[in-house]
Amino acid sequence: MGSSRRILAQLKVRPYNLAPSCARDESLIQRWYSRIAVNSSSVCNEHRNSELRSYEAKNISDADVPHHISPFSRCSTFRSGARWVSTEPASLQADTAAKAVNNAVVEVPNPDDCIEVFVDGHPVKIPKGMTVFQACEVAGVDIPRFCYHPRLSIAGNCRMCLVEVEKTPKPVASCAMPAMPGMKIKTNTPMVLKAREGVMEFLLANHPLDCPICDQGGECDLQDQSMSFGSDRGRFMETKRTVLDKNLGPLVKTVMTRCIQCTRCVRFASEIAGIQDLGVLGRGGSEEIGTYVERAMSSELSGNVIDICPVGALTSKPFAFTARSWELKSTESIDVSDAVGSNIKINSRGPEVMRIIPRLNEEVNEEWISDKARFCYDGLKRQRLSEPMIRNAKGRLEAASWYDALQAVANAITKTSPNQMAGIAGKLADAESMIALKDLLNKLGCENLRCEGDGLRPIADIRSDYLLNTTIYGLEKADVCLLIGTQLRNEAPLVNARLRKAVRNNGAKVASIGPLVDLTYKHSHLGTGPETLLQLAEGQHPFFSVLAKAKNPVVLVGGGIFERADREAVMAAVQRIVEKANVVREGWNGFSVLLLNASHAAGLDLGLVPGVGVPANWKDDVKFLYLLGADDTPMHEIPEDAFVVYQGHHGDRSVYRANVILPGATYTEKEGTYANTEGRVQQTFPAVPIIGDARDDWKILRAVSEVAKVKLPYDNISALRARMLAISPNLFRVDERELASMWRQDLKPAVNGKMDPSPFTSTVENFYMTNSICRASKIMAQCTAAFSGVKGAVNL
């Protein structure tokens, strides 16, 4: 708090101007000054320090930020919920909207649907249905709050958002009061200030003085707002109450005595995560948050309650007592634990990643991330490969120099014919390294390249055949959705949360063919396998008419379908459903494929699929196998005399079979390009230095090519990306999503194969153990043990 006060004193700004806002990170704060505003509710409390640093760097003066108005008043456009409201003249609105950032969802309201209210004497036009709280935000007035959150239902618990409305006898809770035409709202009167001071006094009455030992210290809403609105003395002389801590599992630490009963966590659990594990027990002075039955939170999104908790009641258990927020360096990046590509911020101190928190992106992950994305970071420093290794004559791996390791690889290449070579890109490979692998093997005359998983070849010809064409955000508009061979809670929890949002908000009807699982929302289980799929393809199933009559139908195929031997026949049946039910139409492409791994979309864009002449039984004849971080390839299928090169960052499954190990960098140590399951191109950036003697993956492949006398034509990442632009231009458009080619049945070859009657299954058996980083994580191992066999939890 000392550093915060010092900065605020230099700026001459009242502390409550830095109250919770989703513009915590520096990039969003910069958008305030490019006339783009963001929602002023909390995304995650951890961003406070980057905000303060951004203020200090900009040297904002009194004239720039008025004492009684937040920085949002400098913006011409303000979004409330999912809508953006303009306070500029109509002639400037079009220009302002054009400046909106890529990840903002902009909807300009119809002027006929707006009303005029007065906030502190200033007229403001807002859409009908907005609350007084939202009207104040549009006007640029920052209202303090604890319980309000834009993505949760309104509770009105904390009463901190009290304002005065003319002709009302007492202050009103602005978050729960609808705005009416001509309403005159006052936010800074003596009555309002005294009421807020009284509310703060009640909140602090039983709150412990734990600030020096609380992990929320320095980024706590209660600290900031008590400084801004609280009294300079306390009158509560009685004994403070205490509350027993709850066991919410290995991820969330509880100190329930600090809880102020805002119920954000309860509403998140029931509304977003779809679990009923948390609730309010008791009333009045005995009220507390509890779990009814003592058990861990059985959700893949449980860690998000840490971000939305305004005090130190819910904090990160793995992060506890490890660092203070002002000690951490923050780096924007993306998560690569699944194919969603959630936007994250990596907080590091020195050479170590200390924690991972979400970053706002409306079109991808909103402000949530999965527990796997948030907590697997401890695996980044365990079981790491930090130096090259060569297997000696006794079958043991021993450390070697880079020269010796590269020479061993080059010697193996020269002894092997091109048709006996193969290369496999793993789940976490970035586009740059996959280009280098492709160019290296192609120069050697080898066409046997693939992403990990043998089943992606049939869908690689047409881009719309392997992307989530509906888009993640577009799933909210779906009114009917058919899931085929997928378990969304395991494979993509954030996509599942979007579909849950469509069910809750739009009454969408969801049906599934595959494993019977709890998706956290109501859905119909039509069957487990191909028999039901054929009935739908022939139009004989009752659900077919529901799908055909839908306004925005979606057919979502899980990635596990492509691991089946009959995948082509299954996809042919899916294509018939899509065609007969008119799922793809003008302005709407409801056919979507959910890829499972971060590397798949970019790998297919780059053509990492076997050439036409590569036989199906290629593993029988392979003599040289290059594994680019591929840890899930069944090595028992590779001949014993094959020379295996493993290039990766963890000592995982493939290491036991490798003849040469070349240590690479993780996604937190390098700059890399990824495309998520909807084809959106995003990048990772180095947050910490590369460990030991490891190197960037593309640089290793470039070195291999030079030693093998097939030198690749790029020496820096700029030249490499120029090559990427030539192969797949869409991968050069960062933070954008290029529309895929429309689904065309007439371009697809006829398939006459029969389907295997075995049921559809998900290939993700354990949500917490899907890649080498997760398998090295102690936290993920604890989650696996804690949630094994829990009814309603993830399938393990």
What does the model show?
The protein is built from 22 helices and 30 strands. Strands 16-15-28-27-26-17-18 form a seven-stranded mixed sheet. A five-stranded mixed sheet has the order 4-3-7-5-6, sandwiched between helices. Strands 21-20-19-22-25 form a five-stranded parallel sheet. Mean pLDDT is 83; it is low at 1-106 and 790-796.
Task: Summarize the model shown.
It is built from 22 helices and 30 strands. It has a 7-stranded mixed sheet with strand order 16-15-28-27-26-17-18. A 5-stranded mixed sheet has the order 4-3-7-5-6, sandwiched between helices. Strands 21-20-19-22-25 form a 5-stranded parallel sheet.
Ends distance: 43 Å
Structural class: alpha/beta
Low-confidence stretches: 1-106, 790-796
- Approximate shape: globular
Q: Name the average pLDDT.
A: 83
For the secondary structure, the number of strands is 30
Trace the largest sheet across and list its strands. 16-15-28-27-26-17-18
What value does the Rg take, in angstroms? 28 Å
Number of helices: 22
Secondary structure: helix percent: 25-40%
What share of residues are in beta strands?
15-25%
Major beta sheet summary: 7 strands, mixed
Protein name: NADH dehydrogenase [ubiquinone] iron-sulfur protein 1, mitochondrial
Pfam families: Fer2_4, Fer4_NDSU1, Fer4_Nqo3, Molybdopterin, NADH-G_4Fe-4S_3, NADH_dhqG_C
Keywords: 4Fe-4S, Iron, Iron-sulfur, Metal-binding, NAD, Translocase
GO molecular function: 4 iron, 4 sulfur cluster binding; metal ion binding; NADH dehydrogenase (ubiquinone) activity; oxidoreductase activity, acting on NAD(P)H
